[in-house]
Amino acid sequence: ISAISENYNASGSRENPCMSPLVKQALRGIRRLKGTFQQGKTPILLDDIEDILECMDTIDIPKIQKLRDKAILLVGFMGAFRRSEIAALTVEIFIASSKADQEGQGAIVAIPSLQGSPLDAVRALKKWLTASGITSGPVFRGFTKSMSLRKSAISDKSIAEIVKKYTSLIGLDPSMYGAHSLRHGFATTAASYGVEERNIMRQTRHHSVNMVRRYISEANKFVDNPISTIFEKRLR
Fold first, then answer.
1. What is the mean pLDDT of the chain?
2. Nearest to residue 170, comparing CAs of 40, 41, 44, 39?
3. Integer CA distances (angstroms), 17 to 1, 8, 25, 160, 218, in order
4. Over the stretch 128-152, which tens digit does the pLDDT of each residue have?
5. Of 41, 180, 184, 205, catalytic
């Protein structure tokens, strides 16, 4: 409806059928029938990332693949990137365009180094680039059957498959997770730690507060939860 309405307005037509009472009434009926709750991918929280990293050290896959996958998960989470943004990263660290930046104006995304922490995305990225020998072009690439590195960037669908693979290895239902789980997980984790709304938005690059507030509300359900309070007092 929004797309059709935009085209009518752009055409200069005086009568936009999308604004008619009949259409509005139909949309209200659909909302009542189907509901308005949007079920997104389950967030991967910081604890989940730690479990995945521990699990990665125990599985039998080529070391080069582990380095790539670890860098994808940590950079994706810490940078709160969309899957298309992860796939589009180049060594020059420039994303030509993204969902929220169709004109390719760009944005600086700060990912501080966490010295001595296994969650250090900067260190994981450097180790991947050193081992792979990549000095220009796409940062994250696929492998051939013989495990040689491809020249082209990994697909955004492959990012989702990597997330599903590792969530499955730590006992989670992979159907509930996808590449967006990294971005969603960062925002939810940040909210649960009391990070201010504006600072979360600065990292996620959301232009609207609505989605960020949804993440905050989601996280707050487990902060000062009455059930937790009751049982913490019983155990004292």
1. 84
2. 44
3. 10, 8, 13, 39, 37
4. 999 999 999 999 999 998 999 999 9
5. 180
Of the candidates 82, 164, 184, 205, the residue annotated as catalytic is: 82
Ranges of beta strands (E only) in the chain are 141-143, 149-153
Specify the pLDDT at position 212: 76
Catalytic status, residue 34: no
d(CA 216, CA 236): 29
- 80: tokens are 């709160």
State pLDDT tens for residues 76-87: 999 999 999 999
35 Cβ neighbours under 8 A, 6+ residues apart: none
Which one is catalytic: 14, 32, 99, 236? 99
Q: Are 107 and 207 in contact (CB under 8 A)?
A: no
Cβ neighbour number for residue 29 with a 10 Å cutoff: 10
Tokens 């989601």 map to which residue? Answer: 218
Could you give the CA distance from residue 22 to residue 29 in angstroms, rounded to a whole number?
11
Average pLDDT of 213-219? 73
Length of the chain: 236
Confidence of residue 95 (pLDDT cuts 50, 70, 90): low
Q: Does residue 184 have an active-site annotation?
A: no
Max Cα–Cα distance, the chain, nearest Å = 69
Q: Which of 70, 83, 164, 206 is catalytic?
A: 206
Does the annotation count 150 as an active-site position?
A: no
